[in-house]
Design a protein that fits this description.
mainly alpha; Alpha-Beta Plaits; 10 helices; disordered N terminus
């Protein structure tokens, strides 16, 4: 972490902009992913192909982190008034669908190889898998140097998880090389498929929740209502409260606040916004203040005249 004050030779990594750090790791992981695909096909190693799928997950996470960092530099426009942040959420959802399809393919292929094991070229597969482990360690080191950024931290955790996939590929190649037991490759490929399936489900669940404008994780509407009512004395009631997110890191809130008749409306809004930022980390909110009946709830209908009541 950059805050530790190390003075070693890798200090220049701490000074690299987060987007550049993520881009370097993306190029490294993405390039070796294709090496694993080719190597898996040539050596007939299902674990290498499965690990390539895991690297695809990592490359996607790095890509999303890079997009998030670049979009943070781009302002909104007349066409997209909230900006371009939702592109990364949509891409994440599509990526989850692709990963789910990949998991199904790996499981079908593993089932076929468990019924009739294929002959795997273990030594070349071992070399490629070991190289993949080194690649992941290098990428993790680069990202760890810039882990003060939330997007970089998320990508780093994905790469850390891929170390397990590389370990499984190494173990499968070793077992086949040393013992000739062909079942090791499809069995460990299933292990990687389970890891990939969990990642795909998380992508689909989280991205789908955001696209459906669900309440961001960690936010409780009742807690927000109670906190704001208690913190701002002029507020009588909080209602019509809605929370959603542009991305997981960008929650938004709209709410109505009923206030005392003599309340300073501008001061109430400032206090509410300050409390939302301080207690919940919400820096974008839309607040409507009201003295009496909420306009969105409507007013009681006027009593109809006698002439109107008598019309049939």
């Amino acid at each position: 972490m950059s805050g530790h004050g190390h003075g070693h030779g890798h200090g220049h990594d701490h000074d690299a902009p987060p987007a550049r750090t993520v881009a370097r790791a993306l190029v490294l992981i993405g390039s070796f992913m294709f090496v694993e695909v080719v190597g898996g096909l040539l050596t007939d190693s299902l674990t290498l192909l499965a690990d390539a799928g895991h690297m695809f997950l990592d490359a996607s996470a790095l890509g999303f982190a890079f997009v998030a960092l670049k979009l943070s530099e781009r302002s909104s426009d007349e066409r997209l008034s909230y900006g371009y942040h939702r592109y990364q959420v949509l891409a994440s959802f599509l990526n989850g669908l692709l990963l789910a399809a990949l998991v199904v393919w790996i499981l079908i292929e593993a089932y076929g190889r468990l019924r009739e094991p294929a002959e795997m070229h273990a030594l070349p597969a071992l070399v490629i898998a070991a190289t993949g482990l080194i690649v992941n360690l290098i990428a993790w080191r680069w990202l760890h140097a810039g882990a003060d950024n939330a997007a970089v931290q998320s990508a780093m955790l994905h790469v850390l998880g891929d170390l397990l996939g590389s370990g499984a590929a190494i173990l499968a190649a070793l077992v086949v090389w040393l013992t000739g037991w062909g079942y090791a490759d499809p069995l460990l490929a299933v292990v990687i498929a389970v890891i990939l399936g969990r990642g795909a489900w998380q992508l689909l669940r989280d991205a789908g929740h955001i696209l459906l404008e669900g309440v961001p994780r960690g936010l409780d509407l009742e807690n927000i209502r109670a906190t704001l009512t208690a913190a701002v004395p002029a507020v009588v009631d909080i209602h019509h409260i809605h929370a959603w997110a542009l991305t997981a890191e960008k929650p938004l809130v709209t709410l109505h606040a009923t206030v005392l008749p003599d309340a300073d409306l501008g001061g109430v809004i400032r206090d509410l916004k300050a409390e939302l930022l301080r207690e919940f980390g919400i820096d974008h909110s839309t607040i409507q203040v009201e003295h009496d009946i909420c306009p969105d709830d409507g007013t009681p209908a006027a009593e109809p005249t006698a002439d109107v009541r008598n019309i049939r």
